[in-house]
Amino acid sequence: MLIDFDAKRPATVILTIAGSDNTAGAGIQADLKTGAAFGVYVATAITAITAQTATGPAEVFPVTPEQLERQISTVMTTLPVAAVKIGMLANPALLAVVAAWLRRFEIPVVLDPVFGATSGGALFEGREAEALYRQQLIPHVTLITPNLAEAGRLLEQAPAQNYEQMVAQVYALKQLGSQAVLLKGGHNTLPLATDCLLAEEELTPYSAPRQTALHSHGSGCTLATAITAGLAQGLTLPQAVAAAKSFIQGAIRHGERLQLVPKNGPVHQFYQYW
Ligand code: PLP
Hints:
By secondary structure, this protein is α/β, with parallel strands linked by helices. The chain has helices spanning 27-37, 65-78, 92-102, 129-137, 148-155, 163-174, 219-232, 237-253; strands spanning 13-21, 41-51, 59-62, 81-86, 109-111, 143-144, 180-183, 192-199, 202-209. The chain has a nine-stranded mixed sheet, with helices on both faces. Helix 1 (27-37) packs across helix 7 (219-232), helix 5 (148-155) crosses helix 6 and helix 7 runs antiparallel to helix 8. The longest helix is centred in the last third of the chain and has 17 residues, at 237-253. The protein binds pyridoxal-5'-phosphate.
């Protein structure tokens, strides 16, 4: 696959603020691969190094707030960043650094709320994660992309079990103040995996037949970064979500081809290339 690239214009740049996943399925590594697959240049601000396997809990080694601040400020002052993706923030002090930057960004910001790894283990230290996300981050971003469990935590409700409950929760999430909400239905048991986008008072369901995926590690990071890449390239939010959804479905479907671990292996962001 060749991406149409206009060599006369500078490359489109996004910044990802996220954690490193040493298995390279999620986090910064997923973001770099996803951006590259979309023809977007990805700059990084790393919040934490993690050491993890496909099955065990992640060990987390956060950077200092000063180190995060320096990474963000050097990128923002030297590169033409067109959109920002926020993933794992690791702890309240690092979240505060990002919250201060959110007041200064005048570009689209996609926030993927990351509280824990699917394989187990917390990726945010401290008990007040949800309150900090609600108060300091969500009101200042373009889009939040919670899955059903993260949405339940943000709303202090049980996770939605069916489409009606998802619709009620997507409206409740919008009240938290982001410009738009994409509630991901990938983790429920309905035959259709429906995601709900609520933007400018319009609800758009994106349904796809449920995939019996053995390997979906990194799917949340990949989807959020794919949306960020689309927004940076000038797509509208519904267009960026539709393109990202189609991409993540391919990346999940082809994850099996990597044959790295028996289950919970990475999705394949370069499935269109090899
Ligand atoms: N960020 C990091 C650094 C991670 O290690 C993980 C999961 O292990 C995540 C984010 C969340 O991953 P997912 O895209 O599967 O939601």
